[in-house]
Each structure stands twice: as C-alpha cells, then as structure tokens.
Amino acid sequence: MLEAIPLTVIDTFSRPLRDLRISVTDRCSFRCTYCMPKEIFGRDFAFLPPKELLSFEEITRLAQIFLGLGVEKIRLTGGEPLLRRDLETLIGMLAPLPGLRDLTLTTNGALLARKAVSLKAAGLSRVSVSLDSLDDSVFQAMNDVAFPVGRVLEGIEAAQAAGLTPLKINMVVQRGVNDGDVVAMARRFHGTGNILRFIEYMDVGATNGWQLGDVVGASEIVARIHQVLPLEPIAPNYPGEVALRYRYLDGGGEIGVIASVTKPFCGDCSRARLSAEGKLYTCLFAADGFDLRALLRGGASEGEIAAAVRRLWSGRNDRYSEQRSEESRLRPKVEMSHIGG
C-alpha cells in the first residue's frame, strides 16, 4: 500500500513540482542533427541495455510517488518512446492513477500512423509530434536517415482521427537550415485545430555544435508569420506554461513559441525529468541526475523515495537559461535525447 506523502513541494525559488517527463528509452530511429548527430550516435554507440531500463512497474511506482508530491501531468518521451515495446501497457498502467490530469507523449511521428488508435485506447490523452519542415529534402537532411515527411504527416492525420487532440506540432528552427519554412508551416496547420509550436534552437548537451548565430529568436518568428497571417498575443493557459501563445486574428487557431534562449522562462519552471535508467534531473541543462533506480531496486519504501525527491527538489536552484553564459555553455550537460527534452 502506498504510504501517505505530504503534498506540494517547492524549490528555492518557490517553484512547485507539477510536471514529470519520463524517458522510456534512449534510442531513436532518427539522427536529427540538433539532437542525436550521426557522428556521435553512430552504429557503435552504446545505448542502454534492457536490464538497465526502468520496468513498467518501476515507472508506475515512481509516477505514483510523484503524483503524491503534487505532479499533475506526465509526458512520455525518449529517445523515441514508440520504440519501447508494448508501450500501450505502460500507458494503461499510468492513465488511471489518482491525481493524473494529463498523460501525453512526444514522438517523431515515424510510427504514429500505426500506433495512434492503440495509444488512444490505452488511455493516452494527447501527442506532440516533432516536424521540422514540410520540404521533404530539408526534412530528410535534418533527420539524417532519409525518412520522408509524408509519413509523419500521415501519423499526424491518424492521431487527429484517433482523438489524440489537440495535437502539438513542434518545429525546432535553425537559421540557414529550415527557417525558410516557418511561414509554410504556419499556413499548413492554420485552421486545423492543431497547435504549431516553434522552438528556438537550444544549446542542450554537448554534441549539436550550437552557436548563438544559428538561433532564430521568437520575435523574428512571430514577425514573419504576422506579415501573412496576423497574430495577437494571448495569456498562458496555466502558470509555468513554456510556450508564448499567439492567436490568429482570423480565428484560425493559435501558435506557440518556446523561447528558451531569447526569453527564458526558468522563473516558472515546474518540470522534472526522469531518464530511461531512472535518474532524476531537475533541469534540461543539468549535468548529473539523482539515481532513483538504486533506491527502487535497493528496497526503499515509497516514503523514503518521496523524501529523497522532496529533498532534491527543495534544494533546486536551477535557472540555466536565465544565467546562460559562455562559461556555463561549456560545462558538461546531459544530452536532450537522454532525458527527452
């Protein structure tokens, strides 16, 4: 029986723990140049062996503990989460947990057309799909495995038909790579009910060769779209929402811009991240994680694990994006592909 756990844990900046992102695998079928470049994550790269991954039972046990500490939303990530075998089983275990308001998943869309119906039936609420261009040559160059954009679009249509809505479509914008597709993406998803989100290219990890000059800032992205599809800013849906929201003046829906570089949002960050092997990270740009798997497999009780999480979060003072500097950028950081962004 789950031990009683006090609700609401806050960090040194009074930020509550509300969102948990759970990586279910460190593997991905794409080799996106800004995330898992082939030069690093090639055929000889040592991914985690299955025995080191958290089991579905271990993930569910941890999810219960985090929900008891105030978490309300869980997002399944990777790597590419749909590569984890029988993921629907895990979704079915998580979906009925008391206190969980929203169970979502982020995917590259490669398997989504095949999986959308079973994911919805298992209890998944929504999906976010990564889509960096509608231009097939650009898209294939960015995923670096020659995966066609049409198959991701088929996945988006299947997810919408299955009711995994509202879908969020995530585009990482890089100057000189795919920034010429910003307006085309806006036009494509205008009026569809899907929410397109533009993400500033971030200096996550140490393998993507990030340079500030490659960043297309939020203001520029919004200005480009506003010229052809007029926009106005709107309020966040909830405290801590990462995207700046804008709606089309013609009623065609909304877009979001995640501006971690030019308009940091550390002050409202309520997200913790759990890696596939059970390490807890309190910041996307952290170097080290706290090993919860060791506690799980060492026989710790729910109360003991909850106390460890509470101590870690209560001492949290992460605000990398607000303090970003040349020195901090050069410090070791966990790769985004390992903790799911």
Question: How would you characterize this protein structure?
Answer:
The structure is a single chain. The two termini are 33 Å apart. It contains twelve helices and twelve strands. Strands 7-8-9-6-5-4-3-2-1-10-11-12 form a twelve-stranded mixed beta sheet. It has a single domain, classed as Aldolase class I (TIM Barrel), CATH 3.20.20. Residues 1-6 have low confidence and may be disordered. The chain is globular and about 60 Å long. It has helices spanning 56-68, 87-94, 112-122, 136-143, 149-162, 182-189, 218-228, 292-297, 302-314, 320-323, 326-330, 336-339, and strands at 19-23, 73-77, 102-107, 126-130, 168-173, 195-200, 231-234, 244-248, 254-258, 271-274, 279-281, 290-291. The chain is of the alpha/beta class. The longest helix is centred in the middle third of the chain and has 14 residues, at 149-162. Helix 1 (56-68) links the parallel strand 1 and strand 2 (73-77).
